[in-house]
Structures are given as C-alpha cells and as structure tokens.
Design goal:
The chain is of the alpha+beta class. The protein folds into three domains: 1-66, no CATH class; 76-210, no CATH class; 212-348, Orthogonal Bundle (Arc Repressor Mutant, subunit A), CATH 1.10.10.60. It contains 18 helices and seven strands. Strands 3-4-7-5-6 form a five-stranded mixed β-sheet, covered by helices on one side. It has a two-stranded antiparallel sheet with strand order 1-2.
C-alpha cells in the first residue's frame, strides 16, 4: 500500500486516544506501537504520516475489540475539531457553500478520503471516496469521516438534520442499529457508493450563523494553503503547511525538524537545496497572514502582531514595512470589528 502525500493533525489522534482510553484499553501501549507518547498528543504542531495513521487505527481496533470504533470517534469530532476548515463551515451562508468547502478543502485536514456531491433529481448525493485503498481500516475511517461531516452539517443548520439516508459499500454489521441512532437517519448497507443524501431544496436556505466577511477571510486562508500544497509538494511546502496549521504559535526549527524525523542541521540543508530556509518560510507565512488580517479589518494591529508571534510592536512594524514598504497603519484599518480567525483557531482544535 503506497501512502499518499499526507499528514494527520495530532488533534485527531488525540480524539482516537480519548476513545481508546474510554474503552479501558492501554493508551500508552497503543501509542508506543507507533513510536508515539502521550507527550506527543499535547504537541499541537505534531502530525502523523499515512503509515502511522493507518497503524494507529488498526491497533486501536485490535486493542479495544470495538468494531464500531469509527462511529464512536466520529461522534467526538465536532465542528470545533477541524481548525480553519471547521471555522469556515460555521460561517457558511448555506449548505451548498458548506459542501463546496468540504469538497475543495478536506485535503487540508486529511487525504484519507475525498468528498464530492452531485444532484440527481430532487436529491443531493454527498459522496466519500478513498484516493488510496484503506484496506482493513476502510470501514472505520469511512464511518468516522462520514459521521463527522454529517455532524458539522447538523451543527450549522442548528440541528435540522437534513440527511435522509446514509449509504455504506460494505455488509450490514452487528452494530447497525447504533449507526442509525448516531446518524439520525436510515442507514443502507451493501451499496455501490459511500455517502448520504439530502433534499436538493435545502441547499440554498440561508443559515442563521452565516457571516459572509468571516467566511471569506477563512476561505481565503484555506485557498492559500491549498494553492501552496498543489503547486509545491517539496519539503519547503510541507514546512509551510505545518506553520499554517499552527495551534499555539509557530513551531520552532527544532520542533519542525522533529516532525520530519530530521536533525535541525539536516532540515536546514534540505531547505537550502530548495533555495530557501526555515527563517524565510516563517517570514513568508507571517507576511501573508499579516496582509490577510489587515485586509479583513477584524483585528487591531496589536492583535495581529501578537498572533504572528511578535512580542514587540516595533519589530512587527519594521517587518511589515520591509514587506510592503509602508507601516501597517498605512496599509489598512486596524480596528477589530468582527470575529478573529487567529483568536478562535486555538480553541477550535
């Protein structure tokens, strides 16, 4: 099985660990089988590779002896678990916009599955496909991801539960009644596809939590990250992705090197071979986010500086003038007139 270009944010592993623990299995032992520790779960900058994610799920199934593990984990993955993608979904104008988000950007969170949707008559079919065969963890992953997305749609529609029925491409399990209870919809097995259906006439109904400005700001950051991933799958592109997925501050050079199982010196040498450096990538990410926040006008200049890791306002002003040729106060308004992506992101993961 060849892994795709993939990394899974540690917060998802943390949710699996919590479920493994609740089933009274040995969490430290489970992690150790994949060369991880409980300290790794607390490192919000940590990610795991496809082979590690695959083995974690497989070992969790074997250790807990819980065939419905995917459903139990999926139930834990509420909208606030999904970082900037979840935040954008919360502010979507309607279900069509939310589905478009998942279709375009789910790869920012995981490439275990892809999402598409199509309209057939009066029904919308939301399809989940596996770009790489998932083998023994297929059922578990599909159940977890499908329930996760369904719960996000329920949340943003304030519990309207528009899903009519759910389709799985495998035989009916012994826990089928549990699946139906969790999806709050009919669940059909032995289908030719994986996904669920919703009525076409609810796609464009306005959502009460919609915030167009905040949605645009969040979607812009998703798109910037996706563009970089699409255009550049080099080591420097992967380092940039980790920085954009930061939770509690940008990872240091040492932490970043550890994520790629390298020494800082080796990471520095590889980045030099690609014509860049850790410092230059960090500078570019800070520049991009600073401009995005100033354009959005949702944060004060002081708040922008703080979220980008500047403890000294003078240093931020000097950096911004170097980037744009003008002071941040001359570039855009610094008022905090709305919700902040960077302020909420740490609490969303």
């Amino acid at each position: 099985m060849q892994p795709p270009a993939f990394s899974l944010p540690i917060q998802y592993v943390r949710q699996i660990a919590d479920q493994v623990r609740s089933l009274e299995a040995d969490v430290p032992g489970w992690l150790a089988r994949s060369q991880l520790t409980e300290a790794d779960l607390a490192d919000a900058t940590q990610t795991v590779s496809f082979p590690v994610a695959y083995q974690l799920v497989l070992n969790a199934l074997h250790m807990t002896q819980e065939p419905a593990l995917g459903l139990l984990v999926g139930e834990r993955l509420v909208v606030n678990t999904h970082g900037i993608l979840g935040y954008a979904a919360m502010n979507s104008g309607n279900l069509r916009q939310a589905l478009d988000l998942f279709e375009r950007y789910i790869g920012l969170r995981t490439t275990l599955v892809s999402v598409t949707h199509d309209i057939e008559g009066k029904l919308v079919r939301v399809r989940f496909e596996e770009p790489t065969p998932l083998g023994e963890v297929r059922r578990t992953v599909l159940e977890a991801v499908m329930l996760t997305v369904k719960n996000v749609l329920d949340y943003i529609t304030m519990g309207s539960r528009h899903v009519l029925w759910v389709a799985f491409p495998f035989p009916r399990p012994d826990y089928a009644d549990l699946a139906q209870d969790m999806f709050h919809a009919e669940v059909r097995y032995d289908q030719s596809w994986a996904g669920f259906t919703i009525p076409e006439d609810v796609l464009d109904q306005p959502l009460k939590m919609a915030d167009p400005a905040t949605f645009q700001e969040a979607a812009a950051i998703c798109q910037r990250e996706l563009d970089k991933l699409t255009q550049n799958k080099s080591l420097s592109g992967r380092v940039r992705r980790i920085m954009l997925e930061k939770q509690n501050g940008f990872p240091s050079l040492n932490v970043t090197a550890r994520l790629f199982h390298m020494t800082p010196r080796t990471l520095h040498r590889h980045l030099q071979d690609e014509g860049t450096s850790y410092k230059e990538i960090l500078e570019n990410v800070r520049h991009m986010l600073a401009v995005e926040h100033l354009k959005a006008g949702h944060l004060s200049i002081q708040e922008i500086a703080y979220t980008l890791g500047y403890t000294d306002m003078a240093n931020f002003r000097r950096a911004f003038k170097r980037w744009e040729g003008v002071a941040p106060s001359a570039y855009g308004q610094g008022s905090c007139a709305g919700k902040s992506i960077q302020n909420v992101e740490p609490t969303l993961t």
